[in-house]
Amino acid sequence: MIFNKDTAEKTAELLLQINAIKLNPENPFTWASGWKSPIYCDNRLILSFPSIRNYVRDEFAKNIEKQFGKPDVIAGVATGAIGVGILVAESLGLPFVYVRPEPKKHGRQNQVEGFLQKGQNVVVVEDLISTGKSSLLAVEALRSEGANIKGMAAIFTYGFGVAEENFKEANLDLFTLSNYENLLDLAVQKQYITEDQQSTLLEWNESPSTWGQEE
Fold first, then answer.
1. Which residues carry a binding-site annotation for 5-phospho-alpha-D-ribose 1-diphosphate?
2. In contact, 112 and 97? CB cutoff 8 Å
3. Any idea which UniProt keywords this protein has (predicted)?
């Protein structure tokens, strides 16, 4: 679910402007999972544009507090959401921790890095939601440390049905600054893509794991 329509449209436009999101239905990208995709999203680019990262920070801070109440801690999911998570925590005047994909192999073998007390209210910040699997593994790690997870806030989601099911199963509310639907509407409106290309992008979104595979 998006925080609000205006933010969703503005965020989509900014992501397209800096090529954080690339749309190329004719020459699809190949994800690490092996999926063929007409879209590629790299929200790390936001950090290189001060006015845009400040916009993302401010929208996160404002909407997180409005939706979840002010938490005790902001947690970022490594590595993509560490930068933006720190910005949000700083804006709200809150402690920050981050969550590794898995515990370290040495030292204290931490998966959650930073100071976190049992029972603290935490909002998790993510950069991108695809299936939601890696994001929810971070939530599990925080819960195992005794954190009370109020919800997750992400910059963008592809809006896959499997992600919706995964978050529902995990009993976790997800809100995003923008999403696939608003992105495509804005991309057509601003002539980044044609309506025919929009149709192709919608087809991919319905079955991303099999799209583009030869019969």
1. 100, 104, 106, 126-134
2. yes
3. Glycosyltransferase, Magnesium, Pyrimidine biosynthesis, Transferase
Helix axes 50-68, 82-92, angle to 10 degrees: 60
Q: Tell whether the torsion through CA atoms of 124, 125, 130 and 135 is positive or negative.
A: negative
Q: Please say whether the beta carbons of 6 and 14 come within 8 A.
A: no
List the structure tokens of 6: 């205006």
Report the pLDDT value the prediction gives residue 107, as an integer from 0 to 100.
67
Q: pLDDT averaged over consecutive 10-residue blocks of the chain (215 residues)?
A: 96 97 94 91 97 98 97 97 98 98 78 97 97 96 97 97 95 97 96 94 93 68
pLDDT value of position 215: 43
Identity at 17, one-letter amino acid code: Q
- Residue 102's pLDDT is 87
The pLDDT assigned to 196 comes to 94
Q: What residue numbers does the annotated binding site for orotate cover?
A: 130
On whether the CB atoms of residues 182 and 155 are closer than 8 A, the answer is: no
**Residue 82 in tokens:** 């560490």
For the chain, how are helix, strand and coil distributed in percent, rounded to 5?
Answer: 45, 20, 35
Q: Which residue has the tokens 């898995």?
A: 102
